[in-house]
């Protein structure tokens, strides 16, 4: 049951058996993927860096260390640091509830979890304005007591939580479904508590999916634009996240500065990749 | 072999009450209560006004465009997402690590940047656009393109963990029993992948439906031709017309909720069917 | 080991949430006029960034000299309607400086934060600067675009923002309409046909003014961009003098972007005095010069005359005189079912 499969190994024996035909299939598939990859991901990425460095390294650096840009980077990282752990904990919880128990209305619950995806980001932001803004009595009470949720950092956190809410549980659910509940039931029968079962039986089995989920959630909370744009208020140096700062700069004809920050965001994505590779190697070493 | 145990007896794992309670609480606080406001606001319109707002020909044209482009984009992503996940988890090739890592890029890039970049690349004078015999920017093709970009990671990241966790002894067993790779894929691998692939598809589709930031740049926003439904919501908001804006939001919400529910049901059904085999 | 890391995670989570709440309380600008430094939030629309960047510096200097108080002005920019909505929804702006009075009226109408007669409180309808609508064309004007008539010609492709989503673009639309009214002696059916023909040449309706400018200048789409005069000048400045020309039509509209103190917010932030002075000082000679340098037309006629080669004279109609004010214009042209919807209906 324990299946810590190294991503590279499986399939090699498989393809070795059908050498020639397998090779043709394999390489044509790889070629298609690489072509798609280059035209859809690499060219846009290269063009971002191309724009960012159009006026040289010095302009690039100066647009990054600019005070408003730094505050945008700080705010984005701060928001992500809050959002990802919260959604990770609750994402696991949701996946656990859905896959380990049987109850009525399960499909309905899964669909509710997906809901934030199908809501336009514009609406995702608007609902918090309706809830905490001057429209509702709750909002009026909060504002009169000088507690500002929207057009402030807590509003940005809430909108980001909302938008990234389904990522981790959605990543875990298909995997945990295909794994079933046999191991957990065995563990319970042997006298372990639900918590122990989760830590020692379930968690090791889902760590890859959890990890992917966290990466996605992390990426999305850094990059979220639409919902945050509605609740932020766009105050420079205060409530501008990196994506909003990019929009601002772009609208000021500061294309180089805008793309410089965009390149920082791409670098963050690449950094996640490096962390992932390191972790993969680490786990491989441990299991060997 | 792990298979779904469709037990009708009492919960075999303790802790149902606590975990279920916590989940519903979080779901209600973060999603359900705020979203219910959309319904409350649109209800202020009254039925006739609501119906007039949501069936305005221009609004209807925008639903059509949004659903059509989102669906095509999700379909493309399903095919290429499966391919990506397969190639990434089964083969070794140069640049693999880079490909693997950068698949998430569309998430990390703010949608506005994606929109601006794609518009630049595909406009008449762009790096890619100038080689193409037809217009991409400011047409429905451009919208679909932006949505493909935005939704790509969903299917890949959904299917990849399942493939990686898949006991490949099964494949070997299948192969040693004389099955062709295609048969192995169809009979053994595909059924296991289906739930994950469908979730990926439904997520990519749902996400594309609501996407605003990347699309407004590349769409051109011409009424009846390239106006997407989220833009119609923005249009209503610009007139300070919250009820009408939320009315369109309600329609989109209900339709996409129904669609995702349908996909989830298909998934559930297919799992039972394959599990019973 | 794993249990510990989970506990750590939980602790981290709680700390983060608490600090987030903390930050919400810390950012209150409640102070009185005797404080050493004071903060002011100016919520403005897109194409005023450069203007207020310069003006804020000048005003801070002036205020320091006058009261020995340091004033920091925070800026928020975005689409005019969106910004107005944020203020309605609770963004605590001390002053608003938006693209059209309709947007500030909306704040006054839907909240009690602003006195309804706000526009009478400062000279010239509370608009310390004006602009007008002009055409930006490719260098050398290859399509020979001279006036509004040329925009309805076959084969001319136009870029202009969507008046439904961009407040600034409503001036563009009304300018075309005003020209048609003059041409056809106020025959509204003919005017509508003219505007319809013009908009059928529009290739891209961007959601915001800056987006439209970028589409025209950077993407190379279209033969002519209908733009605010200040926006046209600025894009030539920023994006290349040798690439574009400005064409001034025979008749255009006097675009009046107004300013107002949001009374209640300023009161609760303790900024009423500085906010009022901030807007008043826009009419000073120093500010009017800054305004002209940033390509807005100053209200002060003497200073306007100084920059006469920058701002050619042309026939200008006002929304007040020609369209009966913004409330009426909004209702006739831009509300649902208005003329803009009509020219696009099938």
From TrEMBL, chain A:
It is found in: Membrane. It is a multi-pass membrane protein. The chain crosses the membrane at residues 27-50, 70-96, 108-129, 149-168, 255-279. SUPFAM superfamilies: MetI-like. Keywords: Membrane, Sulfate transport, Transmembrane, Transmembrane helix, Transport. The keyword Transmembrane helix applies. Its main location: membrane. Residues 73-280 form the ABC transmembrane type-1 domain. The complex is composed of two ATP-binding proteins (CysA), two transmembrane proteins (CysT and CysW) and a solute-binding protein (CysP). Part of the ABC transporter complex CysAWTP (TC 3.A.1.6.1) involved in sulfate/thiosulfate import. Probably responsible for the translocation of the substrate across the membrane. This is Sulfate ABC transporter permease subunit CysW. It comes from Sporolactobacillus terrae. The lineage of its organism: Bacteria, Bacillati, Bacillota, Bacilli, Bacillales.
TrEMBL record, chain B:
SUPFAM superfamilies: MetI-like. The keyword Membrane applies. PROSITE patterns: ABC_TM1. Its main location: membrane. Residues 63-263 form the ABC transmembrane type-1 domain. The chain crosses the membrane at residues 21-43, 63-89, 101-122, 134-156, 188-206, 242-266. Gene3D superfamilies: MetI-like. GO terms for molecular function: ABC-type sulfate transporter activity. It holds the Pfam family BPD_transp_1. Keywords: Membrane, Sulfate transport, Transmembrane, Transmembrane helix, Transport. It comes from the Bacteria. It is found in: Membrane. InterPro entries: CysT_permease, MetI-like, MetI-like_sf, Sulph_transpt2. GO terms for cellular component: plasma membrane. It is a multi-pass membrane protein. The complex is composed of two ATP-binding proteins (CysA), two transmembrane proteins (CysT and CysW) and a solute-binding protein (CysP). Belongs to the binding-protein-dependent transport system permease family. CysTW subfamily. Part of the ABC transporter complex (TC 3.A.1.6.1) involved in sulfate/thiosulfate import. Part of the ABC transporter complex CysAWTP (TC 3.A.1.6.1) involved in sulfate/thiosulfate import. Probably responsible for the translocation of the substrate across the membrane. This is Sulfate transport system permease protein CysT.
TrEMBL record, chain C:
Pfam families: SBP_bac_11. Its main location: periplasm. Keywords: Periplasm, Signal, Transport. Residues 1-20 form the signal peptide. It is found in: Periplasm. SUPFAM superfamilies: Periplasmic binding protein-like II. PANTHER family: SULFATE-BINDING PROTEIN. Belongs to the prokaryotic sulfate-binding protein family. This is Sulfate ABC transporter substrate-binding protein. It comes from Sporolactobacillus terrae.
